[in-house]
Design a protein that fits this description.
Residues 193-232 are annotated as: Disordered. Residues 223-232 have a biased composition (Basic and acidic residues). The chain has 913 residues and is α+β, with helices and mostly antiparallel strands. Among the domains are: 152-256, no CATH class; 648-908, 3-Layer(aba) Sandwich (Rossmann fold). Strand 42 (795-799), helix 14 and strand 43 (843-848) form a beta-alpha-beta unit. The longest helix is centred in the first third of the chain and has 47 residues, at 153-199.
Length: 913
C-alpha cells in the first residue's frame, strides 16, 4: 500500500480557475491532516552546514522503468541511498516481490581484478573526501564563532601521507637503481669472464663472485626498501604543498572510477525475459532464474536495440552498425549495411542513426553527407569548424585557456545534408539487396532544421516524423508506408504561430491499431495531444481545458484510451491520466499534488510507474494499477531519513493577479510567529525564462536557493522568503512561455512589481527591505529588474546571468529570446550593458569562471559597465575560479549560500525583536 499519502490539494481543471485565487494554501496543513510527516521542530542551532551538508540528503531516483510485455514485471535501475551505480531490480506484480539482479558483488564475476580494486579504492576515496569536506565546513563555522579549532589538521594529515608515499617511491626507485647497477656490474664481469675463458686465461675470482651475487637480491636494494627509509629533508613546506596539489590532481575522481551498474534494459516481445547492458557487455535474464547469463562482451560499448520478432535472438548496436545474433547459434549479421555511392555522386551519405520497426521487419536509416563535395583528388574536404571560445583556468601556475564549442545567433550554420532511407531488414543468410534511393532529403546548409525521431506503427506498416525549419517558422508532419522507394506524404503543415516551446515535444506516434497519428501541438495556447485520422485526414484535439499535457505515455491495446502526464488539476504538479480517445474525458491515476516524472505505461494499459512525490514525501518509484479505483505501491526508498531533522518549515502556495489579469503562481516560507502586521525583511527568488517543461513552483522541487535556502532564512533569521513563476516560464501555456519573445525581462519585471505590492500589503514585510535573487536566466532577470526599476528592491544577487544574448547558445536564444539575423548580432539589442548605469541598490554578481554555458565574460562585462558608471560602492563579485554553471569548484553549495546569508543580513538587516 502507498505510504505517507497526502490528501488531495485544492485545485481546479483549468488554468485561470487554478490560479485566480490570491488566497494561499499550505502543503503542510493538508499533509498533516492525512497523517503525513510534519516539519521538524524549529531549532536555533540550525546551520547552513546542516542543510547543505557535503553528502546531499537527496538520493538517486529510479531510472529506466520498463514493463515486460505482459505487464507482470517492472524492471528499473536504482540503488539505495549511499550505494554506487544503478543496479537492476525486477518487481513481480503477481507475487509482490522485488528481485535484485545485479550488484558490485554479483558483477565482480565479470570484471577484471584491477577494475574491482579501482572501484573499491575510489569509493573509499569518495566517501573519505565527502566526510572530510563536511568536517572542514563545520570546523570553519566553529572557527568563525571564535572557537579554538585547528583548521590545518586536514592539510597536515594529507602532507604526511604525501611524504610517506614520496619516501616509499624514492626507496623503490633507489632500490631499482641499485639493482640495475648491480646487474650491470655483474654483466660486465660476466662478459670479462667469458672473454678470459675464450682466450684461455684464468677466470678472475671477482667475476665468479659477481656471477653468484647477481642471482641473489642486492643487499643494497634490500636496505633501500626497508619501511623506515628516511624521507629526504631538503624539501620545504611549499614544495610539499606542490606535491600534494599534484597528487590531488592525479587522484581526482572520474566517472569511470566508480562502479557504474547497469545502463540499459530491453524486454522481449512476448517472453518474460530481458537483456541488459553492463559496461558495454550484454547479459540475459529469464524470469525464474536467479542469475544472469553473459551473452556478448567485445570490450566495446554494445547497445541493445530489440529482441528479434520471434524472441529467438537479439538486435544490438556497435557504434553505428546494427547487428543481429541468435541465442542458439554463433555468428553475427550486420543489418544496416553502410550506404554505397558511385564515385561521381553529388552527396555521399553515411549512416548516422537507425530505427527498427517493432516487428523488426523494417528499418529507417538517417544518413548525413559532408557539407562540401570531395576535392578533385576524390578525398573528403575537411568540414568547416564552428566557433570556439576560450575559458581560462587558474588551477596551474599560469592561467591556461580551454576551448569549448559555441554557436551563437549570428554564426553561419553548418547543417550537413540529410537523407532518410527505408530498408527491409534482411532475413538470416539473405544476400544483400540493391540499395534504394532515399525517400526524403534535406539539403542542409546555413539553415536551422530539426527532425524528430522516426516513429513506426506497431505492425510496421508505416512510419511518421516531423520537421521544423526555424527561419521559415515551418512545422511539417510526414507519414510514409513501409516501402523502400515511396516518398512519405506531408499530412500536416503549420507556418508561423506554432509556439516556441512545442517544437521539441511534437513527436508523432501511432495508436496501436495504426489508424491515428497522435502528436503534440499548441493550437489552443497549451501543448496538448491531437490525433490525425489517417482515413478521414482530419485533425482532432484529444483533451479540453487550459493545462499542459505534452507527455504522451502510451495507449490501451484497443486504442480506445491514451495515457498522458498533465498538470490539469494542479499547475505545480504533473499527474498521470487515462484519456478517452472518443470524448476526451480524463481519469486521474496518481496521487493529486504529487509530481510524476519519468512515467511509463505497460503494453496492456493496466499498469503505470513513475517517480512521484512532493515536499511532504520525497519522490519515490510508484507502481500504479490503473483500475477504476487506482491503487499504488511504493517500490523504492531513495533518500536519507536525516532530512527530517532539518525539514523545519514547509512553504505555502499562493497565486495573485498581475496587472494584465494573469494569475501568477508562487510559494512563501513564513517564519514561526509571523503576523501580517510584521515589518520583516524578505527575499524573492525568480528564474523567469522558458525551459521546456521546468519551472520553480513544482511540488517536488527542493531547489537549493528557491526552497532549501529559503526555508533556512525563514527559520533561522525570520525572513519572509518567496519563490515566483512569473510570465516567461514554461508549462503554463503559450501566454506565459511566449511572453519573453522579443521582450526578455519586461513581463517578468512587471510581475515582480505586482508581487512586491502584494507582499507589502499582505505578507508582513518591510517594503524597503526586499531583496531579489535568481540564477542563470534568473541572474539576467535580477539584473534587468535592478537596472530598470532601481528602487523596487533593496538589494539583489544575480548568479551566472546571460547578460549579452548575442553571445549565448543559439539553440536557446533563437527559440526563446527573439528572431535572429545571421548577418549581424541583432540580439545585442537585449544586452544589459547599456542598462547597467541604472543600478541604485547593492548588487552581488556570482559566477563560475569555468562556466561553458553562460560565459563568465557576461558577468565581467556587466561589472565593467557598472564600474564605468560609478557603481563601485554598490557592486560586488563572488567568483568560483574552478566552478561551472552550477559552480561546484572551489565554492560548494554551502559556500555560496553562506555568502548569500551574509549579503542579505548586511543589506536587509535582522528582524526586530
Amino acid at each position: 500500500m502507498f505510504k505517507n499519502q497526502p490528501s488531495k490539494l485544492a485545485g481546479t481543471s483549468c488554468l485561470l480557475a487554478a490560479l485566480l485565487s490570491a488566497a494561499s494554501f499550505s502543503f503542510t496543513a493538508s499533509a498533516a491532516s492525512s497523517g503525513a510527516a510534519t516539519p521538524a521542530p524549529l531549532s536555533s542551532t540550525l546551520s547552513l552546514e546542516q542543510v547543505f551538508r557535503a553528502e546531499p540528503y537527496r538520493g538517486e531516483n529510479a531510472r529506466e522503468p520498463k514493463f515486460s510485455r505482459s505487464g507482470r514485471y517492472l524492471a528499473y535501475l536504482w540503488n539505495p541511498f549511499g550505494e554506487p551505480g544503478t543496479d537492476l531490480y525486477v518487481h513481480d506484480s503477481k507475487t509482490g516481490k522485488t528481485q535484485r539482479l545485479t550488484s558490485p558483488a554479483i558483477m565482480a564475476a565479470f570484471d577484471a581484478p584491477e577494475d574491482l580494486q579501482r572501484f573499491d579504492k575510489k569509493l573509499q576515496q569518495k566517501r573519505s573526501e565527502t566526510a572530510e569536506r563536511q568536517a572542514r565546513e563545520v570546523a570553519q563555522a566553529a572557527y568563525l564563532r571564535g572557537e579554538n579549532v585547528d583548521l590545518g589538521q586536514w592539510e597536515a594529515a594529507q602532507l604526511e601521507l604525501v611524504k610517506k608515499e614520496f619516501a616509499a617511491k624514492k626507496a623503490k626507485d633507489e632500490a631499482q637503481k641499485a639493482a640495475d647497477k648491480a646487474e650491470a656490474e655483474a654483466e660486465k664481469k660476466a662478459a670479462a669472464a667469458l672473454e678470459a675463458k675464450r682466450s684461455g686465461k684464468p677466470v678472475p675470482a671477482a667475476a665468479e663472485a659477481a656471477a653468484s651475487a647477481a642471482s641473489a637480491p642486492s643487499a643494497t636494494a634490500k636496505a633501500e626498501t626497508k619501511p623506515d627509509a628516511k624521507v629526504e629533508k631538503d624539501k620545504e613546506l611549499w614544495e610539499w604543498r606542490d606535491e600534494l596539489k599534484k597528487k590531488q590532481l592525479r587522484d581526482k575522481l572520474k566517472p569511470s572510477d566508480l562502479y557504474p551498474g547497469v545502463t540499459q534494459i530491453v524486454w522481449a516481445h512476448k517472453a518474460e525475459e530481458l537483456i541488459l547492458q553492463y559496461r558495454g557487455a550484454l547479459f540475459r535474464w529469464v524470469s525464474g532464474d536467479s542469475k544472469l547469463q553473459p551473452l556478448l562482451d567485445l570490450q566495446r560499448n554494445l547497445r541493445m536495440v530489440a529482441y528479434t520478432a520471434d524472441d529467438a535472438g537479439y538486435v544490438f548496436m556497435d557504434d553505428k552498425r546494427v547487428l543481429r545474433a541468435r541465442f542458439n547459434q554463433g555468428g553475427v549479421q550486420v543489418l544496416n549495411r553502410e550506404l554505397i555511392h558511385p564515385d561521381d555522386a553529388d552527396k555521399k551519405y553515411a549512416i548516422e542513426s537507425t530505427t527498427l520497426s517493432e516487428d523488426s521487419r523494417w528499418m529507417a536509416l538517417i544518413g548525413r553527407a559532408p557539407s562540401k563535395p570531395a576535392g578533385d583528388d576524390g578525398k573528403p574536404v575537411p568540414e568547416p569548424t564552428g566557433r570556439q571560445v576560450e575559458i581560462m583556468g587558474y588551477n596551474e601556475r599560469f592561467a591556461k585557456a580551454k576551448k569549448v564549442d559555441r554557436e551563437v545567433s549570428d554564426d553561419k550554420r553548418v547543417n550537413k545534408p540529410l537523407a532518410l532511407y527505408i530498408r527491409k531488414v534482411p532475413a538470416a543468410g539473405e544476400a544483400p539487396a540493391k540499395q534504394s534511393a532515399p525517400v526524403f532529403t534535406h539539403a542542409g546548409g546555413d539553415v536551422w532544421f530539426e527532425m524528430s525521431p522516426i516513429a513506426w506503427a506497431r505492425d510496421g506498416s508505416r512510419y511518421a516524423f516531423s520537421t521544423w525549419e526555424r527561419e521559415k517558422e515551418l512545422l511539417r508532419v510526414y507519414v510514409g508506408g513501409a516501402d523502400e522507394s515511396a516518398k512519405p506524404e506531408m499530412v500536416l503543415e503549420r507556418r508561423g504561430d506554432v509556439g516556441h516551446e512545442v517544437v521539441n515535444v511534437v513527436r508523432p506516434r501511432f495508436t496501436p491499431d495504426g489508424k491515428q497519428l497522435v502528436l503534440v501541438l499548441d493550437e489552443a495556447g497549451f501543448r496538448q495531444p491531437y490525433a490525425w485520422d489517417l482515413s478521414s485526414r482530419k485533425l482532432r484535439r484529444l483533451v479540453q481545458g487550459e493545462f499542459e499535457a505534452h507527455q504522451v505515455l502510451g495507449f490501451t491495446p484497443d486504442s480506445k484510451s491514451m495515457f498522458v502526464a498533465a498538470n490539469k488539476d494542479d499547475l505545480a504538479s504533473m499527474n498521470l491520466f487515462r484519456v478517452s480517445m472518443a470524448d476526451g474525458s480524463m481519469q486521474a491515476l496518481g496521487v493529486p499534488g504529487e509530481y510524476h516524472r519519468n512515467a511509463v505505461v505497460s503494453h496492456d494499459g493496466q499498469w503505470l510507474a513513475a517517480n512521484a512525490g512532493n515536499w511532504v514525501s520525497r519522490p519515490e518509484l510508484k507502481l500504479i494499477e490503473a483500475g477504476a479505483k487506482p491503487t499504488l505501491k511504493t517500490l523504492t526508498d531513495s533518500h536519507d531519513k536525516a532530512w527530517a531533522q532539518v525539514d523545519v518549515l514547509r512553504p505555502e502556495r499562493f497565486s495573485f493577479k498581475n496587472r494584465h489579469g494573469d494569475s501568477i503562481p508562487a510559494y512563501v516560507f513564513k517564519p514561526q510567529g509571523w503576523k501580517a502586521s510584521d515589518k520583516r525583511p524578505a527575499v524573492v527568488y525568480i528564474y523567469g525564462g522558458p525551459l521546456n517543461d521546468r519551472h520553480s513552483v513544482e511540488s517536488d522541487s527542493f531547489q537549493p536557493s528557491a526552497y532549501v535556502f529559503a526555508m533556512y532564512m525563514a527559520a533561522k533569521h525570520g525572513y519572509v522568503m518567496v519563490t515566483i513563476d512569473s510570465r516567461g516560464h514554461s508549462n503554463y501555456g503559450r501566454r506565459f512561455s511566449d511572453a519573453n519573445w522579443e521582450n526578455p525581462g519586461l513581463p517578468q519585471t512587471e510581475d515582480l512589481e505586482d508581487l512586491h505590492a502584494l507582499m507589502s500589503k499582505d505578507f508582513g514585510i518591510d517594503p524597503a527591505r526586499v531583496g531579489l535573487n535568481g540564477w542563470s536566466f534568473g541572474g539576467f532577470q535580477t539584473q534587468y529588474t535592478m537596472f530598470s526599476k532601481p528602487d523596487l528592491f533593496a538589494a539583489g544577487i544575480a548568479g551566472a546571468g546571460p547578460t549579452e544574448w548575442e553571445n549565448y547558445n543559439s539553440w536557446y536564444s533563437g527559440r526563446t529570446i527573439g528572431k535572429t539575423d545571421r548577418s549581424k548580432p541583432n540580439l545585442r539589442k537585449f544586452s544589459l550593458i547599456p542598462m547597467a548605469k541604472g543600478l541604485r541598490k547593492p548588487l552581488l554578481l556570482v559566477h563560475g569562471m569555468m562556466d561553458p554555458n553562460v560565459l563568465y565574460q557576461d558577468t565581467v562585462n556587466v561589472y565593467r559597465a557598472l564600474l564605468e558608471s560609478g557603481k563601485e560602492g554598490l557592486v560586488d563579485l563572488f567568483l568560483d575560479p574552478e566552478g561551472e554553471h552550477g559552480m561546484g569548484g572551489a565554492v560548494k553549495t554551502v559556500g555560496w549560500h553562506r555568502k548569500y546569508e551574509a549579503f542579505w543580513l548586511q543589506h536587509l538587516g535582522h528582524v526586530a525583536p
